[in-house]
Design goal:
24% of the residues lie in helices and 29% in strands.
């Protein structure tokens, strides 16, 4: 049989017979698809006594293969699937104590009831391994019979299969499931949530962040409410000012040991790419995740984003004033090409479009003694919001008959879906706070800005001995800048990786130096001064750098014209110091050709570097460690933050070279 969607199949190592609901597990061949766990069989295959094709149970315990065509082509296709800790909701969480067989049985019974499913087979708390390799798994496979969703009305039914796999390992519970309802609620009663910060900084010691989905701390109609960013290395590409008011929702990173890893901190979902996988490799994946959670590593880059705080940390005079229902998740489900959902309503109620239109605007909160009416522009009450100990809850006034129905016909009331996902955001009388996805966030503060700036400081020891910017005075026969000048340091040690180094000082300056290397252009802006952590001594050089940001990624005619003027004078001032400080092999012609190669290279790096002697890394760290930062240091951080942000907006990499 052919199928257009990837299919995950596996083989369970057990021989189950009657499991209590009249079905016989042995002889039922099923497949678990990431989009729909549907019953499949080959034409002419003999059916078992319960209507299942004969051949044995298949699911994710055992060897897992993927196929985009047929099971027979799986090995040849070698299609990868994504190993995921729990497709929705909490994926991995600490266990206060080991589960019992009674507790697991009750959990499975609850899932079967909420999923309107019948048990096919199960295994409860089966130990494997010994010593440090010991783990316990529990497995439930179930069958759902429902009307065919694409024929209305119809008496035809279809059979689908789902599963829940629990792995208890080193005091944690990992959950893998498909097609199961009520898993979140059942697991929450048995475990504790993982600290969100630990999930956010998972594998931070080796991570290169490639994609972020964020929620902006606003509900205003005229502002962006969400954004996604993607780059080979977002740490070098993202504008720092963007982070301060952007809540992380999804993170995609590249790591040395684990490859591509995706994390959803709010739900505990962790995803890595994998090919064939057995349960022991799943356990290894769980071990890696647990080790990452318990590690003390943190990313300075991600620290710049707002982090959740407790409701009790918000001042008592800060009150909620506005609410917006986050319907983006609903629309994503409705327009998912691989696994589309439908929002349905009984004929006696207003249409689905009318309901969504009514829930989409920014709504006002009217205080009513620790509760708030959620009202629209006409004054109609759409819901009631109440403050709990650690969160806010919503109770809707519109009927529960509106439901989200998946491609398999499984329906969930819209009100329940919105509550389960905490799909609403709240603003307060202080813009410093924002409530989203069930958590209160406080805007990243000054410490995060300091950490962001420090990432771009690069101490260069030869600058410790520089006593001036250009040195001199120079005689007419001088052939180089003094080694104790910034210009001398740039030419002798700082820019040694550049093939060509062009001194642009005097005249129409684009920078003090422009260095051109293989796939790279660097603009060097130099400034000498006495030791300081104040901003005033750096305003001129930062202003010069910002003024010339328009030169980044210039067009070829611009550099040709600039070089034509430069070639008319080979030396700096009235000396014999060459303006082409480093000549790779072909003089000005070679420099122009190297420029042309970089301009044609889509992967070329453009850098803007400040070279400063008035700043040392040691002094910066001392100023940053003060309990109360000085006004001068605050201004310095603001100045450098503006420089970094402006460079990022021009797709340039900022660098600040300083004394050690």
């Amino acid at each position: 049989m052919k199928t257009n969607s990837p299919m995950i199949t596996g083989r369970l190592g057990l021989n189950a017979t009657n499991v209590g609901d009249g079905s016989h597990a042995a002889g039922c061949a099923t497949s678990l698809s990431p989009h729909a766990s549907r019953l499949i069989y080959q034409p002419g295959q003999e059916l078992g006594p319960n209507g299942c094709p004969s051949g044995g149970i298949r699911h994710t315990i055992g060897s897992i293969v993927s196929s985009s065509t047929s099971a027979a082509d799986a090995e040849a296709e070698a299609t990868h699937h994504r190993r995921t800790l729990h497709s929705e909701g909490r994926a991995i969480s600490p266990l206060p104590k080991n589960l019992t067989k009674v507790a697991v049985q009750a959990l499975f019974d609850q899932i079967l009831e909420q999923s309107d499913a019948r048990r096919v087979t199960q295994e409860i708390r089966v130990p494997r391994g010994s010593g440090s390799s010991r783990y316990v798994y529990s497995f439930l496979c179930f069958r759902i019979t429902s009307p065919v969703p694409f024929l209305v009305p119809t008496e035809l039914t279809e059979v689908r299969y789902g599963f829940v796999l629990l792995i208890e390992r080193d005091g944690y519970l990992a959950v893998f499931n498909r097609g199961a309802k009520g898993v979140d609620e059942a697991i929450e009663k048995k475990s504790r949530p993982v600290e969100r910060r630990n999930l956010t900084h998972l594998f931070a010691d080796t991570a290169r962040y490639r994609k972020l989905s964020t929620r902006r701390m606003t509900i205003a109609k005229q502002e962006l409410r969400g954004a996604s960013y993607e780059a080979d290395d977002l740490e070098m590409a993202l504008v720092p000012a963007t982070a301060a008011r952007s809540i992380l929702q999804n993170i995609r990173m590249a790591t040395e040991e684990h490859g591509s890893v995706g994390v959803t901190p709010s739900t505990g979902r962790v995803r890595i790419s994998a090919s064939k996988t057995d349960i022991d490799e799943l356990v290894a994946f769980v071990d890696q995740t647990i080790a990452g959670i318990n590690a003390s590593t943190a990313s300075a880059f991600l620290t710049a984003f707002p982090e959740p705080v407790e409701l009790d940390e918000m001042p008592g005079d800060v009150l909620p004033v506005g609410l917006l229902f986050d319907l983006g998740g609903v629309h994503d489900l409705l327009h998912d090409p691989a696994y589309p959902h439908t929002l349905v309503a009984p004929g006696s109620l207003p249409s689905v479009d009318q309901l969504l239109d009514g829930l989409s605007p920014v709504l006002t909160l009217r205080d009513d003694d620790e509760q708030w009416d959620v009202i629209d522009e006409s004054g109609a009450v759409l819901a009631r919001m109440k403050r709990l100990k650690n969160s806010y809850s919503i109770r809707f006034t519109f009927p529960k008959d509106y439901a989200i129905e998946d491609a398999d016909g499984v329906a969930e009331p819209l009100t329940q879906w919105l509550r389960r996902h905490s799909a609403f955001s709240v603003t307060f009388t202080s813009p410093e706070y924002f409530y989203s996805a069930g958590k209160l966030y406080r805007m990243a503060g000054f410490e995060q800005e300091v950490a962001q700036v420090r990432r771009f400081l690069h101490p260069h020891p030869p600058l410790d001995n520089a006593s001036s910017e250009k040195g001199g005075p120079y005689s007419a026969t001088a052939q180089s800048f003094s080694p104790d000048s910034i210009f001398g340091v740039v030419e002798r040690s700082l820019a040694t990786d550049d093939n060509y180094l062009w001194c642009c000082d005097l005249g129409d300056e684009w920078a003090d130096y422009i260095g051109v290397g293989t796939g790279r252009v660097t603009f060097y802006h130099c400034k000498h001064g006495g030791p300081t952590t104040g901003a005033s001594d750096f305003q001129i050089v930062v202003g010069q750098a910002l003024k010339n940001l328009s030169r980044v990624k210039f067009r070829r005619p611009e550099v040709q014209q600039k070089l034509q003027h430069a070639e008319q004078r080979d030396y700096w001032g009235a000396t014999r110091i060459p303006l082409l400080a480093r000549d790779y092999d072909a003089g000005w012609t070679g420099l122009e050709e190297n420029f042309a190669e970089v301009l044609a290279d889509p992967n070329a790096t453009w850098r803007v570097a400040l070279v400063l002697t008035a700043l040392s890394l040691e002094q910066f760290d001392q100023a940053a460690a003060r309990a109360t930062p000085t006004p001068h240091f605050i201004q310095l951080i603001w100045l450098f933050s503006a420089f970094v942000s402006a460079c990022r907006e021009r797709d340039a990499q900022p660098i600040i070279y300083c004394r050690s």
